[in-house]
Design a protein that fits this description.
alpha+beta, 3-stranded antiparallel sheet, extended, binds adenosine-5'-triphosphate, ATP-binding
């Protein structure tokens, strides 16, 4: 699969429109808000502000033709969506007698309590009781849906330490953050889009002390940032294909384990690094005031955190100045990686998290000014395109058809040819010879093309296993077809099964999250609770384990009419539904209509690891490379689960020493240990199957590599031909690429 992006566009700035509520018009971003503070009480700093929520940033993206300068002018300019989220006063702030210094005045204005003339307007302001679900719906959902249409998107949280970035981006069990909500949404969009196919890959990195580390691969340390025609990228970063929301979230949870976290004066578990989760999704650390730095290490981290943020501030200031010729993206790793989002590519949503407290009034004011400046950046979102390999199939099919026609004509010619009346015997022999030669030549070309077509089809079949499709699209297409069904087709025939799985049912089951989210509270929690919140995602998986347990979750297999057991986290059976209490979920399961489960992913989830195998039947008709690929996928997912369980085990062991509920924790430990044992057994069993299928696989790989080379050459030729021939410069069979980044910025 190839992706092509529009060439880089120059950053664009919107001239102060003076629209909205504003009167302010200072040209320098830093003075903009200062001057606003001199306004009458009702005046609000809104220059560069497009009308909130209803602005163009909310409209669905149009399909624009890339690489076409003439069309550039027609693309609507959009501002970054800028929102501000207040958290409640923390118990610590209340204990210290802090008062409210800043507050949400309606849906779009933040006002200073002591000086009401100081006020700023944004696209939306969320008060301290707003749920993360609501923040997601307003500030992130449009970026996610655009990303699913091929428009790059970046959502980042920015705010001082302990202002609520992690709470907003990752969330916890009761209140899932933007990242898990976006992942779920991405998968439900796939489910709702029968006409398209998706390949989702994720990577997760941290920028710690200006060093880029791969959170999905502990060996990937100090990675280099490189540039190519498609933009900046991190060299050697691991990209995992994800097959389900839970699969994506298990990768984040495993990645979080490798992340740098430490205590400062304000936050027991403060993120010490910026992180970027790319769904082919970014969490930034909080800006440090010296008040927060407790040790030398923290000071060093703080200076690096601030370096990135200082550069981010400078970049944003320069972008909004309009006249700047040099934008210092290269001055920090963070701005380098965000360059394309900031310079106008794709949709951007900036969520600024703030505390209302008087003790942080100055820091909050700085964040508000930063957010206000950012609103002045304009973006021009453009769509990326991917050429589907099926266009190659189309080409082959056309060629084969015309060759067949040619051949047919020739054959007919041979049969109907009548000897020339006056021609000699020699003429007839010559003519026959010519026809036979032509026939042999065409036959051999046809055979070659047929072989190439078969190889291409088999490659497409293998790739198809990684492609996620809506069940709505596939049921009719595949039910009539013999052979294995698409193994990774998302939510295949899940409609009845949706009640089992919140991940696939964001709309119908959201009410359940919302009920829980209403508990979204100020920070009144103990150290352990805080820890478990920070490990919110891990807890999700803990709950998943409770749902499925050692005995697995019963499902009905429609095809066989028998009950099967599914592994809790493996594709198809997974869910990110942990916000629902296990008991609630189990009762839902009991009420559920029978659900079909794709046989290719159906595996036994019993305590007996020897029994663990991917069902043989569908696999016997698969090539050994397919089989091995499938086994490897399963090993990868199971290894992720083992890593996850191990981290839960570690946390439980830590908790055991201090907790009064020793017996309960001990039981949990035993349960988790057993699961690790079972899964390790399953991995061993899969690995032994893997080694058996290695030889055949090698041979096939050899063939495949040879063929890949041919396909690539042909692919380039076809793309070029299509581009040359298309009057719009557009290729047919456009698929979108998904590049949702989530930034959780320290401000
Ligand atoms: N909107 C909110 N509602 C309730 N509690 C919140 C909210 N936002 C943050 N909190 C609580 O405030 C505390 C600090 O939040 P969080 O860890 O998300 O801050 P942070 O900005 O990520 O900090 P750091 O930059 O140091 O990592 C946490 O205990 C969190 O649960």
């Amino acid at each position: 699969m190839e992706s092509r992006q529009t060439p880089r566009q120059t950053p664009r700035q919107k001239k102060s429109s003076g629209s909205g509520l504003a009167k302010t018009a200072a040209s320098s971003p830093s003075s903009t808000t200062t001057s606003s503070s001199r306004q009458a009480p009702d005046a609000v700093a809104t220059d560069c502000q497009s009308s909130p929520a209803s602005s163009s940033a909310w409209s669905r993206p149009q399909r624009f033709v890339p690489d076409n300068a003439a069309m550039d002018a027609e693309r609507p300019m959009e501002n970054i969506t800028v929102t501000v989220r207040f958290r409640p006063l923390s118990p610590r702030e209340i204990r210290h007698g802090d008062e409210i210094a800043w507050y949400a005045d309606g849906d779009t204005i933040v006002r200073n309590e002591h000086n009401p003339s100081v006020a700023y307007a944004y696209d939306r302001v969320f008060g301290p009781t707003t749920t993360t679900r609501h923040v997601y719906d307003v500030a992130a959902q449009h970026v996610v849906s655009s990303a699913m249409e091929g428009v790059n998107g970046t959502i980042f949280a920015y705010g001082v330490t302990s202002s609520g970035k992690t709470h907003t981006m990752h969330g916890d069990q009761r209140s899932p953050g933007i990242i898990p909500l976006a992942v779920k949404d991405a998968f439900s969009i796939i489910q709702e889009t029968p006409s398209r196919e998706f390949l989702l890959r994720v990577s997760y990195l941290e920028i710690y002390n200006e060093v880029v580390n791969d959170l999905l691969n502990p060996a990937g340390q100090n990675l280099r940032i490189r540039e190519d025609l498609q933009g900046t990228f991190v060299e050697g970063i691991k990209e995992e294909v994800v097959l389900s929301p839970a699969h994506a979230l298990s990768l984040i949870a495993a990645g979080e384990e490798h992340r740098h976290v430490g205590s400062n004066n304000f936050n027991l578990l403060s993120s010490r690094s910026h992180t970027i989760f790319t769904l082919n999704l970014i969490d930034l650390a909080g800006s440090e005031s010296s008040k927060a730095e407790t040790t030398g290490i923290r000071r060093k981290e703080g200076s690096y955190i601030n370096k990135s943020l200082l550069t981010l501030g400078t970049v944003i200031a320069k972008l909004t100045e309009g006249k700047a010729t040099h934008i210092p993206y290269r001055d920090s790793k963070l701005t380098r990686l965000l360059q394309y989002s900031l310079s106008g590519q794709g949709r951007v949503s900036l969520i600024c998290t703030v505390t209302p407290s008087s003790s942080n009034s100055e820091e909050t004011h700085n964040t508000l000014k930063f957010a206000h400046r950012a609103k002045c950046i304009e973006i021009q979102a453009s769509q990326n395109i991917i050429i589907d390999e099926k266009s190659l199939i189309k080409k082959y099919q056309n060629e084969i058809r015309s060759l067949k026609e040619e051949l047919e004509k020739l054959k007919q010619g041979m049969l109907t040819v009548t000897p020339f009346k006056d021609g000699g015997e020699d003429d007839i022999v010559l003519l026959k010879q010519k026809l036979e030669d032509g026939h042999v030549k065409l036959q051999s070309r046809l055979e070659q093309e047929e072989e190439a077509k078969a190889a291409l089809l088999s490659r497409i079949q293998r790739l198809t296993k990684l492609i996620l499709v809506s069940t709505k699209a596939t049921q009719s297409r595949f039910s009539q077809r013999p052979g294995p069904r698409r193994r990774h087709s998302f939510g295949e025939e899940e409609s009845d099964d949706l009640f089992n799985n919140l991940a696939y049912l964001p709309y119908r089951r959201r009410d359940m999250i919302l009920d829980d989210e209403d508990i979204d509270s100020a920070d009144g929690s103990s150290k352990e609770e805080k820890k478990s919140r920070k490990h919110g995602l891990l807890n999700w998986f803990k709950l998943r384990r409770q749902q499925c347990g050692n005995t697995g979750m019963a499902r009905w297999d429609k095809s066989s009419g028998s009950k099967s057991f599914t592994s809790p986290l493996t594709p198809q059976s997974e869910s990110v539904s942990a916000p629902i209490e296990a008991a609630t979920l189990n009762s839902l399961v009991a009420d559920t209509a029978p659900a079909y489960q794709s046989p290719e992913v159906q595996h036994e989830c019993t305590d007996n690891s020897e029994n663990y195998s991917i069902q043989d039947k569908p696999l016997t008709s698969m090539k050994s490379t397919d089989h091995a690929e499938l086994l490897r996928e399963q090993v990868k997912i199971l290894s992720g689960e083992v890593a996850l369980h191990s981290s839960v085990l570690k946390r439980l062991s830590d908790e055991l020493a201090n907790s009064p509920m020793k017996e309960h924790i001990q039981m949990e430990i035993t349960k988790v240990s057993n699961e690790i044992k079972v899964k390790s057994g399953q991995i061993a069993s899969l690995e032994s199957q893997l080694s058996k299928s290695s030889y055949g696989e090698l041979l096939e790989q050899l063939n495949e590599k040879t063929f890949e080379l041919e396909v690539k050459t042909a692919d380039n030729r076809v793309i070029q031909e299509q581009l040359n021939q298309s009057p719009t410069g557009q290729c047919d069979n456009i698929l979108t690429t998904y590049f949702i980044r989530f930034t959780n910025a320290r401000g």
